[in-house]
């Protein structure tokens, strides 16, 4: 397993993390993802972690980094599928992933990205409540 | 890693295979998938193997089995993301995965499922060419 696959779904990209991350794999993922955002003109990234039973500070930081990088490339990131136990651990560890948006599952994440995108597309001087 | 996550995307399910399969993991996947097809009333299953560099007869049979099981539960299966080298090996091994439909990537696979579903929805005695 050398790289984590990135699936394109319309204007969004989906990354499913199923394996233990290590430095090189995380770096490769960041490279692949940023390249793909640019090449495919992707508007959003969904990171699915439903397979992860543990999210440590390394993965937490990687997710925050990916989110920040995507934002610089004008793509929004949504983290989906977090298991309840992971949410508990993250808060206990003091890793609240601030700045990273989350959704219950891929479907809701995609809806969130779509709403977001529509609202950006629709913005032309009007104030939106 | 005890189970492969199954993501719901509208009326379809997406399975991304990233890790080496073994007996128990394959059985768990089949159980999880068939349960989810029934519970979520899924109309189609996308199996993404873009991360696999090798598909042996075990995985080939597992995919064929999943496809057959899904069909019995009234869901269609499309295998997506096959690497060119995998296609070569499969044919050389005599595993042509007959009965399993394929598409280049998730997007096209989803379009295929949607077309398929629409055509089924639209069938009411009319002959479709």
Automatic annotation (TrEMBL), chains A, B:
Domain STAS per the UniProt entry, residue ranges: 2-113
Superkingdom classification of source: Bacteria
Designated name of the protein: Anti-sigma-factor antagonist
A Pfam family this chain is assigned to: STAS
SUPFAM superfamilies for the chain: SpoIIaa-like
Species name: Hydrocarboniphaga effusa AP103
UniProt-listed PROSITE patterns: STAS
């Amino acid at each position: 397993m050398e790289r984590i696959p990135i699936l394109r779904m319309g204007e969004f990209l989906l990354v499913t993390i199923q394996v233990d991350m290590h430095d090189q794999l995380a770096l490769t993922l960041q490279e692949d993802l940023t390249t793909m955002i640019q090449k495919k003109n992707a508007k959003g990234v969904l990171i699915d972690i439903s397979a992860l039973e543990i999210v440590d500070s390394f993965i937490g930081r990687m997710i925050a980094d990916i989110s920040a990088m995507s934002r610089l490339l004008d793509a929004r990131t949504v983290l989906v599928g977090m298991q309840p136990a992971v949410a508990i651990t993250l808060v206990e560890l003091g890793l609240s992933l601030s700045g990273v948006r989350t959704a219950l599952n891929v479907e809701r994440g995609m809806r969130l990205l779509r709403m977001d995108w529509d609202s950006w597309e629709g913005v032309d001087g009007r104030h939106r409540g």
